[in-house]
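Hi everyone, sorry if this is the wrong subforum. Our group has a chain we'd like a structural model of before ordering constructs, and none of us has done structure prediction before. Sequence below.
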Amino acid sequence: MADILAAIEQLIQYGVKSGLLAHEDIVYARNRLLAALRLEEWRPVEVKDTSFSSPSPILETVLDWAYERGLLQTNTTVERDIWSTKLMDCLMPRPSEVIREFYAKYHKEAKLATDWFYSFSKASNYIQTARIAKNQQWKVKTAYGELDITINLSKPEKDPREIAKLKDVPPSSYPKCPLCKENEGYEGTWHHPARSNHRVIPITLLDETWYFQYSPYVYYNEHCIVFHAEHVPMKMERKTLARLLDFIEKFPHYFIGSNADLPIVGGSILAHDHFQGGNYTFAMEKAEIEEYILFPPFPSLTAGIVRWPMSVIRLCGKKEEVLEAADCIYETWRTYSDPSVDIYANSGNVPHNTVTPIARRRGDLFEMDIVLRNNRTSYEHPYGIFHPHKELHHIKKENIGLIEVMGFAVLPGRLAGELEALATYLVRNTKKDKWDETLLKHRDWYEHIRAAYPNITEENVSDILRHEVGQRFITVLEHAGVFKRNEKGKQAFRTFLRKVQENVMTRGRTFKR
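Answer:
Right subforum, don't worry. Here is the predicted structure as tokens:
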């Protein structure tokens, strides 16, 4: 009994130290924890260790105790998550209090508000810092700058017991998806993640209600999500571009971007309109304009092709002119075809062209990168003509979304073990007939590495593999680029931009500055 009471007291003290819990709420929070754990008695206990920077170790102790007492049925990750978020919610203020605190700070400075809310989201364990620490991350120098590489190990794989439960429990339609406002405070089920400790901030974009939160599995500093108040599908349009610019006017220290709105080139959740942003500088942002474009109707505007493996147009200037030029680029691209480089806007009534826009501030100026996307497939490339081709699927088979577009590779967790095994094979020069069958997909890459590095040792093999993963990811981005980086592709890109210039000139006659 003393052990669980000590753990509860540690949670209370953690809540106070992390700013989740006011002193006036200690008794109330303690009683909520006792009720959740079905304890009826309390007595003061001595707590020796109160130096926890994360609640995870304390929660693990409490959940082990709860499982031993039969409060947890399966002790799986899903069930433990439901319980841990419910326990953390006992320490947390209500949503209205969080919103008031956020805006009290925002009225002083936007960065004060986001700094506080980011710390709050980590302290509440909504941002899974302990799991995120499991990710493997490194940087790789390439011809296009220094890329970020991460192997995603933070999201645990499904336990067989969880899979069995999923078969027995019918899915619910509430909340409709992981992004809906209704996730705030939702306990969670076998089908839907636990969100008892979740809080969101309402914000206004173009006189519409949207919500601001952080990703529970942040890939980079202050990785935030901004989602529509209604469960409406992703849609690329002028209003999308205007919302992005409105956001960076309100939060000038953040970038914000939207995944494309079509399958293959879009994000993982197309059913709910949302953006991703944060306080991080990606390689694409550092890339320079290599060829400038003139848009005479917009005198404040600097525009040009970015030196990047994908097809990117950068605009920088006054907010209104950036919006007009960006919308003109999108509208021109939406219906643009060029058979000479395999670009077709439609197959019958099925659209293929869209964009991935990213907005940021450059001092007082507004900057937007427009990344041209096309999701057409073919017999040779059933996953997408402008998608990582089959020879790269051993590294990356999934969609190339907003984060990858900017030069941050999010690679599947399987690669961690596979790279370790490949390192052993490379050092020992293991013959093909001794290979694990699951690793044969890497065989061509293995042969390339052996030819490129004649002196592979235990000391240098990890660095070699990490470097080569980065070079492979550059090829992934080159495959996703609609206008290739050869002379034919560059000429085709210029031809498209001449069409944009024509449309800008037409639009510029009616544009009121």
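For your construct planning: The CA atoms of residues 55 and 125 lie 7 Å apart. The mean pLDDT is 94.
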